[in-house]
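Components:
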Amino acid sequence: MTTSLELIIAAIMVIALMLYALLAGADFGGGMWDLLAFGPRTRQQREAIADAIAPVWEANHVWLILVIVMLFTAFPRAFAMIMTALHIPITVVLVGIVLRGSAFVFRKYDAQDDATHRRWSLLFSISSFLTPLFLGITLGGLASGTIRVEHGVVTSGFFAGWTTPFAFACGLFAQGLFAFLAAAYMTVETNGDRLLQADFRWRALFSGLSLAPAAALVFGLARHGAPQIFAGLTDWWAPGLLIATSVAAVTALVALWFWRFQLARIAAAAQVMLILAGWALAQYPALLVPDITLQNSGAPEVTLRLLLNTLIVGALVLFPALGYLFVIFKRSSDAKPFIKT
Amino acid sequence: MNDFLFARSQMAMSLAFHIIFAALGVGMPLLMAISEGLYLRTGRPIYLDLSKRWAKGTAILFAVGAVSGTVLSFELGLLWPQFMEFAGPIIGMPFSLEGFAFFTEAIFLGIYLYGWGRISPFRHWLAGVLVALSGALSAVFVVTANAWMNAPTGFEIVNGQVVNVDPIAAMLNRASFHQVIHMTLAAYVATGFAVAAVHAYFVLKHKDSHFHRAALSIALIMACISIPLQLLSGDHSAKAVAELQPVKFAAMESLYQSETGAPLAVGGIANDKTMELQYALKIPYGLSFLAHGDPFAKVTGLAEFPRDEWPNTQVVHWAFDIMVGSGMVMLALALWAGWLWWRKRSLPDNRWLLRGLVAAGPLGFLAIETGWVVTEVGRQPWIIYGVLRTADAVTPMTGLVTPFVTFTLLYIFLSIVLVFLLRRQFLETAESGQSPKVGELKKLPEGH
Ligand code: HDD
Ligand code: HEM
Ligand code: HEM
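Structure:
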């Protein structure tokens, strides 16, 4: 009984993480394209990105908080060990989160002249690059298998796991993924302005294609950088998932090519979800490979059951409200929001 | 300083920073919703203008509140992993409830800030009301988690193992009630007085700016209603602390020896060596009355507790006095304003009162900061009162000076930018007080 409760909560955590990647990840990606904006419509590109992010980024950001809260409530030992062993990259993520969020609002309310605007933009977009890089590095560290815990104490120091080529490749991959998501979403957001849409179409195609070598790099480095994960990726479910992910990726690119942006957006989102699902399955049952697992770090059953009830009740409030938000701001002429109401 | 001190300082600094935005995040949406509600009722555009301008300031503050709060959720683990390993399953519940309150708050704030004209005015107002409600709720939940650190319940320790965990009992611990009431009211007091100060300043400069007079009256009503309630709730808190955490209470007053009919000591220098409070102003029987509602009751002194369980008496005592003193000054101003209003039945615009309000602007926040110092420093050396020592909960990580300095510099930078941006917003608001848009309003018949 207890074990299955732990599994359910872990599954919800993975879903919350997926939503964070799909929603907040795209907001980070938007920040990257702000820095990379060029061409005759530089200004319009930046404005379209800012308009798309502004009403939703704070709500999108709460998914991360939910993941953290669930982690320390349901898997307190895992939380304590992760926060100890990965103190450094997580601190960098936090600095990035603070700078990204505040620079974004400061820019909006401090846009007296172009120079000020540019300065805030620079801070906003640099932190939009930095944060996903270190998020990816942190996840890479979790998976590396070199962070060791004995008798509830981290014994591998503060640099194990995340200072490796594999972890760094994970960071680059996260950046690429978020940039791709953002560009794919922006093609829908800019509906009605074909030139602007074309700009984002090129960006989505370019970043989508560059994901293939990045994924290959992560996979190749995983053999030594995260052996358990690598072994996990040869399990029975792996080929199916790999095929599904590739189908989603190719669909997204083909749809972009043929200007079918609605489809491209859905396929891109599916691709990201499948990648994270694959990661979670390969790592299962470990939260911090190899010593901390769902079973040996779980909270008492009462806590898990109450948490699950809280999550269910919370979801009943959350999803209608979230749906309403997206209906108000993300309804465009030919597009229905991807969260249905 | 060693790593332990840096960890404590980083935690304290991050919390002290966050609480300002948290309090405004509870108070500002209520002001906005009241003003927009008045607009819906009276149709006077001045109220609409007002809620839009308040919303603009709130948008900046809210973003900083959200990111600094995120930092806190991580810091609990980054700095106090052993604490979270212990406390997570017990108090995770209020934190997860808080998470959903944040969601509601962030979602409806997005709708409120960017939804003008996209949804009906009534729905827009409703979104504002929901922001105000969920802001208050998130404060309630997180404060119950803190209260549990002061009055830990809902678990047992058998042979070093935590058993019989009961998260609901933990959430409804005996300190929750007084802390939740006192903190929620504190948010309204602090926001009310701070906003009143800003608009009082502009009323002093432009005596008949309808805009600032309307703003001032809404803020004043909030401030004047909440401050007397806050002092009552403070009195209740004091009684609860005297019962639940007698060491903290003794430190608040630097009372070394137990006394019957103990006097209330104001100020002074606490000397832990001679166990004396020197140079303090003493109000006879005050302390016994504050603690137990009986001027002759016995109050327990620090001497009855082992020396290594004393918090820093000097800090706790002074923090307590500053909080109470700020409260008294604000109460006096509120009574004065109420008296003037009662006599004239219109917005009090006595210049001396307005000057006093401007000067009192920061007092609510001063009281919040010092009140938290009473609670947190007064709990030392425990992170969970009587259960886990702070020193045993700190991360093994070394070199904590680096994150401490980084976050301190970061927050100083954000504070400077914020002051600058908000100042400019206020000045723009001041101009709009004279702009044709509001000028036109004057042509409208009163009460239109
Ligand atoms: C506007 C702010 C404000 C004002 C005017 C006051 N307080 Fe306060 N006080 C707070 C804001 C605050 C606070 C920051 O919100 C605290 C920190 C923790 C808490 O629950 O509330 C607090 C804590 C706090 C505590 C410690 C509670 C604990 O550790 O559990 C006591 C005993 C008092 N207060 C008592 C008073 C008294 C007797 C006051 C005036 C007569 C007073 N407060 C005015
Ligand atoms: C008395 C103490 C606290 C109060 C009253 C409080 C209240 C609030 C409020 C009202 C907000 C909404 C944002 C805003 O209005 O600016 C907020 C944001 C936040 N707080 Fe606090 N908070 C407190 C302490 C804490 C602590 C100790 C933590 C973490 C452990 C925390 C975590 C957060 C987080 C994660 C957010 C961001 C939510 C978002 O993204 O919208 N807070 N807090
Ligand atoms: C409600 C949410 C809060 C929670 C859960 C919380 C939790 C904590 C924790 C875990 C520590 C570190 C361990 C310790 O020193 O005991 C701490 C210390 C501290 N906190 Fe809080 N806190 C909260 C609100 C606040 C606020 C709003 C302030 C504002 C000033 C504050 C001020 C401090 C200070 C000054 C310390 C350092 C105490 C010392 O080490 O002497 N706390 N708090």
